[in-house]
Amino acid sequence: MSTAGKSILLVDDDQEIRELLQAYLTRAGFAVRTTGDGREFREALNEESPDLVILDVMLPDEDGFSLCRWVRQHPRLAQVPIIMLTASSDEADRVIGLELGADDYLGKPFSPRELQARIKALLRRAQFGQERSATEIMAFEEWRLDIVSHRLFHTDGEEVFLSGADFALLKLFLDHPQQILDRDTIGNATRGREPMPLDRIVDMAVSRLRQRLRDTDKPPRLIRTVRGSGYLLAAHVAPA
């Protein structure tokens, strides 16, 4: 996939890191804007929506978690992929970021080459999700998913905004209804690489999607856990 013209917005309070990544990613063909704190980041997002966001967790005025939550609450930005930069030894940061809707995480210190690979993987996934299909609306139970716009609607009129990871996981289930999907399949399809730790990250992603789908019964009604095997979407799926 060509990166020409793809825009990235980075927020990090370390000027040296900002300059290094801006130079490296610009040479790779990206259009990169950088900001040093949450206020500048919000202002930059209000001016223009990027194709991808890179959020550092530790910032001088507010943390990356609150910024991630803020991005996901805006319909215009709901599907923008987010990579969070975290302390390499702090698993809690990674878990919180993924629960809030981040699509990937990278521990510091990291290599710019690895970051570029993660960026390309997320942009490929986002591009794939935006490509039109012969069937643009998928219906299941009381839900309708527009696979072009990534918009999810309930029959009561509510619209649920999905992150890129939410959409990828839901689309995977809808493409394989009534089939058991193991954690490797889910991890590879939704994150583009094997997440670490795999079981915990996949379980969190499924739990987050269940919340989106109001699937909070005990046991869940729509996305069922098949003990020792994985997960299954117990619904009939059809074009709408």
In the predicted model, the low-confidence regions spanning at least 5 consecutive residues are none
**Quaternary structure type:** single chain
CATH secondary-structure class of the largest domain: Alpha Beta
Helix content: 40-55%
Secondary structure tally: strands: 13
Structural class computed from helices and strand pairing = alpha/beta
Task: Provide the succession of SSEs.
Answer: EHEHEHEHEHEEEEHEHHEEE
Whole-number count of domains: 2
Which strand-content bin applies to the residues?
15-25%
- Strand order across the biggest sheet? 2-1-3-4-5
Largest sheet composition: 5 strands, parallel
General form: globular
What CATH architecture label of the largest domain applies?
Answer: 3-Layer(aba) Sandwich
